[in-house]
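Try this one yourself first.
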């Protein structure tokens, strides 16, 4: 199994999404119990979904603060804080959104009809791919692809 080299705050690229999985499931289950929810799957899935979206936003903000500087010509991305080869603002967001795809699909399926879980999964995959590509092009491509 390969190792991922991190620099600076790059370690947060895997830690925050992992904390989102564990903490979101625990908090969602506790919230569901407190509210008297009889559904076993929905509260943890909703908790993970919220936690992963917060982790993705936090990862982007960390990347924005640590990997870029504002100049009169515009924002310059340096990507000195990396998870693997890529800036933490891209890799961390992508990992967090990928972790949120299944909880999003479960939440969609539980709130609507069970058959729509596949549609929710497709929407989540498409949104993850689109957001990931947009962040990569806007923040990492110039620093990585000469």
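Now uncover the answer:
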């Amino acid at each position: 199994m390969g190792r991922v080299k991190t620099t600076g705050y790059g370690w947060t690229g895997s830690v925050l999404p992992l904390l989102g999985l564990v903490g979101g499931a625990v908090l969602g289950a506790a919230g569901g119990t407190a509210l008297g929810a009889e559904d076993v799957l929905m509260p943890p899935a909703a908790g993970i979904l919220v936690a992963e979206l917060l982790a993705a936003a936090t990862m982007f903000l960390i990347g924005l603060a640590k990997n870029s500087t504002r100049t009169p010509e515009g924002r310059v991305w340096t990507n000195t804080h990396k998870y693997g080869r890529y800036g933490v603002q891209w890799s961390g967001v992508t990992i967090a959104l990928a972790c949120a795809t299944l909880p999003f699909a479960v939440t969609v399926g539980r709130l609507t009809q069970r058959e729509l879980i596949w549609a929710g999964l497709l929407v989540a995959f498409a949104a993850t791919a689109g957001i990931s590509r947009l962040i990569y092009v806007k923040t990492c491509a110039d620093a990585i692809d000469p």
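Discussion: Helices lie at 12-34, 42-66, 88-111, 117-144. The mean pLDDT is 87.
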